[in-house]
Write a structure and sequence with these properties.
This is CBM2 domain-containing protein. This protein is mostly beta strands. 0% of the residues lie in helices and 61% in strands. The chain is built from no helices and 6 strands. Strand 3 and strand 4 form a beta hairpin.
């Protein structure tokens, strides 16, 4: 994720999927904020300067071989 705005902190990335998925490993560079059916939210309480990037991730599991990402959103508290 790259911050194209001003400095931010306390951000949450929510990723949507076509079917149920769960976190089975990690996450890294964030904490699991929630995992509910088709959505996983990763949160970070660190600061991210304008123009800076961070890699967030997790290992997930599902029973659906045709899993697709359906969306991604970021909520940020400006700092």
């Amino acid at each position: 994720m790259t911050n194209t705005g001003s400095s931010a902190h306390n951000f949450t990335v929510t990723i949507g999927y076509s079917t149920s998925v769960r976190i089975s490993g990690g996450p890294w560079n964030a904490r699991a904020a929630s995992s509910s059916g088709t959505q996983i939210a990763l949160a970070s309480e660190s600061s991210l300067a304008g123009g800076a990037s961070i890699r967030l991730g997790f290992q997930g599991e599902t029973n659906d071989r045709n899993l697709k990402q359906t969306g991604c959103s970021v909520a940020v508290v400006a700092g």
